[in-house]
Amino acid sequence: MKTSLDCIPCILRQALEAARMASPDPAVHEQLVREVLHCTAGMDLSESPPAMAQRIHRRLRQISGVVDPYRPAKQRLNRMALGLLPVLQGEVAAAADPLMMAARLAIAGNVIDLGANGNLREADVHQAVQQALTESFWGEADGFRQAVAGARSILYLADNAGEIAFDRLLIEQLGPQRVTLVVRGGPVINDATLEDARAVGLEERVVVIENGSDAPGTLLADCDEDFRLRFREADLVLAKGQGNFESLNECGREVFFLFKAKCPVVADHVGQPAGTQMLVRTPVGQKAAG
């Protein structure tokens, strides 16, 4: 997915929020924002938004000297999500269709995205859960069920810390023995890393690998060869979050995407209102699922 002109104000907002999270020094904030303004003037709009975000957050880490500016926030979000997990597991257990209920709740967890909303509150997460329980979503439920039933190996691309605890619900329904969970190869925003997979107990349940990249999406050319091989050979690839959708929706193989359309650009791209819960595959289909 290409970068839209409408992405630029969002990039600037995210840069300033990230700078303030990394450092209390206004000089750091100003330096990063000025560099981002300069960079956006010559940016290649044919690249996906995660490619631009990768460069911004790399520079922020260099300027601030902080390896993982979002680490305290990620730890807080993991604890919050783990606190919700017993109730959510009860919802899955009581559901007539546990697989699709787990998918709904995994998508609800995608609201835990500090790139899209740096002021995320716990109330926002509770609201997303209620939406998942009561509202329809857009996508291909039948195709998803069939793909899951026929897959011997499933590559599950995680998105954010906190959200990754919600992913436990779906992984338990998929069958952990056939799932390989993929996290980022380095810290960026509140995207999930190996530390986060450990924090929510997933490393004990599934094989967890890093993709070798610090982009807030999956830029295949920037990932290591082990991940690319697994990506090519997996029977089924599931990708969580907008960043993975933005970077993989034209990747050349079938991928099922699970995410909330959190911004107008992505919502326009998929032809659904902002806030819609999405379960779609490449190429993005036009079939609604209740």
The arrangement of helices and strands along the chain is HHHHHHEHEHEHEHEHEHEE
Mean pLDDT: 90
| CATH topology value of the largest domain | Rossmann fold
Q: How large a portion of the residues is in β-strands, by DSSP E?
A: 5-15%
What does this structure look like?
- The chain has helices at residues 7-22, 26-41, 49-64, 71-94, 98-108, 122-134, 141-150, 163-174, 194-199, 225-233, 242-248, 264-270, and strands at residues 137-139, 154-157, 179-183, 207-210, 236-240, 256-260, 277-281, 288-289.
- With 290 residues, it is an alpha/beta fold.
- The chain has two domains: 7-64, Helicase, Ruva Protein, domain 3, CATH 1.10.8; 71-289, Uncharacterised protein PF01937, DUF89, domain 3 (Rossmann fold).
- Strands 4-3-2-5-6-7-1-8 form an eight-stranded mixed beta sheet, with helices on both faces.
- Mean pLDDT is 90; it is low at 285-290.
Summarize this structure as a short list of keywords or feature phrases.
Rossmann fold, alpha/beta, 290 residues, 11% strand, Helicase, Ruva Protein, domain 3, 12 helices, 51% helix, eight-stranded mixed β-sheet
Present the secondary structure layout:
Layout: H1 7-22, H2 26-41, H3 49-64, H4 71-94, H5 98-108, H6 122-134, E1 137-139, H7 141-150, E2 154-157, H8 163-174, E3 179-183, H9 194-199, E4 207-210, H10 225-233, E5 236-240, H11 242-248, E6 256-260, H12 264-270, E7 277-281, E8 288-289
Parallel strand pairs: 1-7, 2-3, 2-5, 3-4, 5-6
Antiparallel strand pairs: 1-8, 6-7
Helix pairs in contact: 1-2, 1-3, 2-3, 4-5, 4-8, 5-6, 5-8
